[in-house]
């Protein structure tokens, strides 16, 4: 592909990503993969170059751009070589005309910037929310050691705050580490330790998804005890079993739940769990480094629905905890409506429950919990609280 053809491909992809964001359709990564699956002639360098253009344009525009062309034109001012690719050639974009619409630079839509500010995220903290994230691994201590994985990789560095964490250069191939290490952001690893899961405990991972935190819990339990992984998404939960087998995890039982009828399927666990982990569905405002187009998908109405879902999941979780046990609430969000505000509402509705500060390797106290954010911790953004059931 010529440089002009690469720019045109990026514009086409951006048009599709903008439409999908507005309609709640497929994610950007999925659309990029589909695009090149239909264009086998594009080599690896072409795919990489187009992808980099696409994501540079997404990270640059806070508000949803009018078109893919407007999003790409926003990059031209800082890159004269990119401007030269708007040459009107057969496979390139048409020449730039005076007064064309250009997407405005920003970190997020204005309403979200206001919500972040109200949640204590300062102006200086905002740019880090859309910077490119590093590649972090959690070493599976059931099968190997961090030193052994570092030796096998021949690259990367230990994450000082995490005994099992490794940070690698972006783009490093980790396929050979299946079962030995899991791709998991350092922040996700850190907040998982709030569960303080130990061997012999009875633990529930209520929103397990594909099981990233379930596997971390199993390692902390040294594969001894009871570990129930639940979710309402059959496709995501089905990915846990093969991952657990590769990781040597034998204590994880999966249970598919019916939405809004979760409590009925968990009656046998009422009052049994030492710890219930709730990694709740959320806006993902802390993960824009990895999914920058998510800023364009979130609306006030969708945020309200997520807050309602979080309250429902917490209500399902509470009866499972044994007297004196712990409920650990996690969201990869920096919005107080999903974090400290959600915990405050739970405590108001559950007399006798108390919040205790989780001892974490990073983050700052925030309300009844701890918050991690990209600007200060170099991780994805998270809020985590540890809630103690009455005895």
How do you describe this structure in short?
With 391 residues, the chain is an alpha/beta fold. It has 16 helices and 13 strands.
Q: Assign the structural class, choosing from mainly alpha, mainly beta, alpha/beta, alpha+beta, or little secondary structure.
A: alpha/beta
Tell me the CATH superfamily of the largest domain. Answer: Vaccinia Virus protein VP39
Rg result: 22 Å
Order of SSEs, N→C? HHHHHHEHEEEHEHEHHEHEHHEHEEEHE
Sheet having the most strands: 9 strands, mixed
CATH arch. level architecture of the largest domain: 3-Layer(aba) Sandwich
Could you please describe the fold and organization of this structure?
By secondary structure, the chain is of the alpha/beta class. The chain folds into two domains: 3-92 and 100-106; 190-388, Rossmann fold, CATH 3.40.50. Helix content is 37%, strand content 16%. It has 16 helices and 13 strands. The strands form two sheets. Strands 5, 6, 7, 8, 9, 10, 11, 12 and 13 form a nine-stranded mixed β-sheet that branches. The chain has a four-stranded antiparallel β-sheet with strand order 2-3-1-4, covered by helices on one side. Strand 5, helix 9 and strand 6 form a beta-alpha-beta unit. The longest helix has 21 residues, at 3-23. The termini are far apart.
